[in-house]
Amino acid sequence: MSVNAAEKVLWLLSNERAETDRFLRDSEGYLKGFRLDPAERESLEKLDVRWLADRGVNPLLLLGAYRAVKGPDSVPEYMRQMNSR
Amino acid sequence: MASIVGAFVMPHVPLILAEANAAEPAQAARVHAAFGRIVERLREMRVDTVITIGADHYGLFGPHCIPQCLIGVGDLEGPAEPWLGVQRTVIEGNEPLAGYILQTGQQQGIDWAFAKSIVVDHATMVPYQLCVRPLQGVRTIPVYLNEAVAPYIPSKRARAIGESIRSAVLSWHGSERVAVFGTGGISHWVGTAEMGRINETFDRRILQLAEAGNMEALLAISDQEILATAGNGAIEIKSWICAMATLPAARAQVIAYEPVPQWVCGFGFAEFKTAA
């Protein structure tokens, strides 16, 4: 697991609207531009924040990217995912 | 000769502005009254420059570069977050003094990163909007400490930065009347499964240590303890340490404490005064 590569993706999704739009249009194609292993790629494509948090990804980025991709009203859904085991 | 006429600590949770109506109205009123009390004190002190010490939230600075401490010495704008509920605006800075703090720190071994232009986030913008903007002609110098991405800035380093800021202001040839804000905290969990939890016991302990002026006890609280008991957001008490260090033998007078679950944070407000 490369926390650094995952955080690179999440930071771009959180902070660069054009990157978020590219991800929303074609998440699979977008993620091919990063050095990720298959499990990481799948977790980022699904925005599986629980899986990513368990591997040490910074929660500030997880929340920021989730809101950027899913919308500002998605925090309850985010919390449900974070509390799922 | 310039002087530091006051130091304050306060929260900077973005929900205060972004979800202003979420909190219970009476509690929200008490929070805003605490910010208002700080505005009154700034007016009484005839403050003309505010130095805000806060945390980036892994937004302004990304995996490509994470400065341990950064000072804004040039163009200032904010907020960076379009969802904060505040229109992007130019913030009046104090470039000469900011540059002097940078140079003085470098001579003292503080490896400042610096921004010639920066769009500040809510750590600066919330205090600016609620405490600085109501006043006329007060300039802002933003300081960011790494309190978001491990390894965090060591607490002792935060103190050293505060001491360096103090020595710079006191040796500056200008006549500024400076107030320092330590922004952030107290307990809160951001983006974790525990988001919404508040540890009032921890918060009151921090306030008591600040009231006692017990810097050593604050420095002794490890990052691991903070994370385990008060959440990743509570690492921001390093901003309090930095602000406290700008006044010698500082002791806090608590203005207010409000645990606000809807704003996911234990809110601590205090003014630091030099012990007589």
Blueprint of the fold:
The complex is a heterodimer of chains A (85) and B (276).
Chain A: H1 3-15, H2 17-25, H3 27-31, H4 38-46, H5 49-54, H6 59-70, H7 75-82
Helix pairs in contact in A: 1-2, 1-6
Chain B: E1 3-10, H1 15-18, H2 25-45, E2 49-55, E3 69-78, E4 89-91, H3 95-107, E5 113-119, H4 122-132, E6 139-145, H5 155-171, E7 177-183, H6 200-212, H7 215-220, H8 223-230, H9 237-244, E8 250-260, E9 265-274
Parallel strand pairs in B: 1-7, 2-6, 2-7, 3-5
Antiparallel strand pairs in B: 1-9, 3-4, 3-6, 8-9
Quick recap:
By secondary structure, chain A is an all-alpha fold. Chain A is 73% helix and 0% strand.
Q: What is the mean predicted local confidence, pLDDT of chain A?
A: 95
Order of helices and strands of chain B: EHHEEEHEHEHEHHHHEE
> What is the straight-line distance between the termini of chain B?
22 Å
Number of helices of chain B: 9
Broad structural category of chain A: mainly alpha
Percent of residues in beta strands of chain A: under 5%
Gyration radius of chain B, in Å: 17 Å
Low-confidence spans of chain B: none
Task: Outline the low-pLDDT stretches of chain A.
Answer: none
Could you describe the 3D structure shown?
The complex is a heterodimer of chains A (85) and B (276). With 85 residues, chain A is mostly helical. Chain A contains seven helices and no strands. Chain A has helices spanning 3-15, 17-25, 27-31, 38-46, 49-54, 59-70, 75-82. Chain A starts with a helix and ends with a helix. Chain B contains nine helices and nine strands. Chain B has helices spanning 15-18, 25-45, 95-107, 122-132, 155-171, 200-212, 215-220, 223-230, 237-244; strands at residues 3-10, 49-55, 69-78, 89-91, 113-119, 139-145, 177-183, 250-260, 265-274. In chain B, strand 8 and strand 9 form a beta hairpin. In chain B, helix 2 packs across helix 4 (122-132) and helix 3 (95-107) crosses helix 5 (155-171). The model of chain B has no long low-confidence stretch (mean pLDDT 97).
